[in-house]
C-alpha cells in the first residue's frame, strides 16, 4: 500500500497480513502511518497504489460502510458514535430491526441492546442518550457495536485509553472470545504491557514504511522501542522509562495558585491545594476520582458551589474560563478531539486561537505577528506538518497535542494544567512532551500534571496530591513520592469525607 497527502508520503509500499484468530499489534510513533493504514483497510482512504485482499479475494472499498458490510469493524480511540442518539440507536445504527410493517422495532432493539451490554458488564439504559454516559462506558458501547456486526476483522485503535481496570479486563476477555471464534483482531496501542499480554504478532511502522513483522514473544521490549524510534538499542536503554530528568525542580517559596474548599455538587468535595512556580504538582487517582473535574474547576470550566481560588495573591471573584485565562491559567484538556483542537482549521489558526485578542489592533489581527508566533512554536515543539496551513485534523495525535500546547504556551501563562498530556501518543512524542514539561518547570512555570501512568507521575512530579471520590485522600512529598506509597494511598478504602458526612446524618447517635 502507498498513500500520499499534499506531497507528504503517509504509506510507502507497506505490506501487511492479518491471520484469522490472531491478535496482531500495530505499533509505531505518531506519524508512522498506523492511522493511514487503518483508514485504507476500512475504506476511509483509497490507496494510491497496492492491493487489498480479504479472505484471499481482492476487494476495493469506496466508503467505510462497504468495509463494514464485508466484515471489517473498527473501534477508534475517540468514540466515533452519535452523542445525541440513544445507546440502542448507536449500536444498531444502519441495521435497525424492523417489525412486519417495516417500522423500527424499538422494544426488540432495546432488549437486544441490554443483553449485548450485559455480556460486557455494562449496565446502562438502552434508551439513554449516549452523551450522558462516561467516556469509558461510551467506549464499551462502541466495542459492543463493533462485535455485534458479525465481523471477520476487528480493528481496535487505543481501545483502553478511556477504560478503568475492570473494563480493561472485560475488553481482554472479549478479545479472547473473538480469537476463539476465528476473528482477527488488529490492536493498536502504545501500552507495552497490554501488547505483550494479549498480542501474538507485531508489525512496526516508521515514517510510513514497514520495518518489522514477527512474533511478539521473542522480541525484547527495548528492541521493539528501538525499532519504533529508529534509534540504537543502547541509547534506548539509557533513556529509561520516561524522559523526565532525574533531579527535581526548584519551586518558589510562595504559591502562585491556591485553591481552598472547591466544591461542586456530586463531583468535588472540599478540594484544597497549592501550586508553586517552578514545580510540577502531580494529581493522582483512579478513573472517576475527580482529577479532570479538579482541573476544569481550576480553569473555570466547571461551575462551583463554593470555594476560593487565588492567583498571585489575588482572588478570582467570578471564575470563568475567560477570567482564568486572563489570570494566567491555561488548561490542556484530556479529550483533545472534543475539547481541544478545531480539526477543520489549520495548524496556524489552532495555535493562535486563544491569542487573537492580544494580536489584534483596532479589531484587525496582524497576520505577520501570527506567523511569527507560529514559526517559533512549531520549531520549539517540533510540530510535524507539511506547512502551517495544513488542517490540524490531518496531523498525528502527538502533533495535535503539541499544537494544543503551543496554543497555551504562546499566552505565556503562569499556571499550566495538563490533563493526560501523553495519552494516546507514541513513545517518541511522549518523551518530547515529558522533556518539555521539565523545561517549562525549570523556566518558572507552575505545572499541574494529571496522568494515569504511575511511572510518569512518580518520575515527573515533585509532589503528588491523591484524589478519591472527588476529595483529597492524601499528599505525597519528598521521599514519599514513590510507587509503593502512591499505590498504598490509592488502595486505601477509607471513606471519603462526603461518605462520613452521610453516615453522620443517618446514624441516630
From TrEMBL:
<dbReference type="InterPro" id="IPR017871">
    <property type="entry name" value="ABC_transporter-like_CS"/>
</dbReference>
<keyword id="KW-0472">Membrane</keyword>
<dbReference type="GO" id="GO:0005524">
    <property type="term" value="F:ATP binding"/>
</dbReference>
<protein>
    <submittedName>
        <fullName>Sugar ABC transporter ATP-binding protein</fullName>
    </submittedName>
</protein>
<keyword id="KW-0547">Nucleotide-binding</keyword>
<dbReference type="GO" id="GO:0005886">
    <property type="term" value="C:plasma membrane"/>
</dbReference>
<feature type="domain" description="ABC transporter">
    <location>
        <begin position="1"/>
        <end position="232"/>
    </location>
</feature>
<dbReference type="GO" id="GO:0016887">
    <property type="term" value="F:ATP hydrolysis activity"/>
</dbReference>
<dbReference type="InterPro" id="IPR027417">
    <property type="entry name" value="P-loop_NTPase"/>
</dbReference>
<keyword id="KW-0813">Transport</keyword>
<keyword id="KW-1003">Cell membrane</keyword>
<keyword id="KW-1278">Translocase</keyword>
<dbReference type="InterPro" id="IPR003593">
    <property type="entry name" value="AAA+_ATPase"/>
</dbReference>
<keyword id="KW-0067">ATP-binding</keyword>
<dbReference type="InterPro" id="IPR050107">
    <property type="entry name" value="ABC_carbohydrate_import_ATPase"/>
</dbReference>
<feature type="domain" description="ABC transporter">
    <location>
        <begin position="252"/>
        <end position="494"/>
    </location>
</feature>
<dbReference type="Pfam" id="PF00005">
    <property type="entry name" value="ABC_tran"/>
</dbReference>
<dbReference type="InterPro" id="IPR003439">
    <property type="entry name" value="ABC_transporter-like_ATP-bd"/>
</dbReference>
<keyword id="KW-0677">Repeat</keyword>
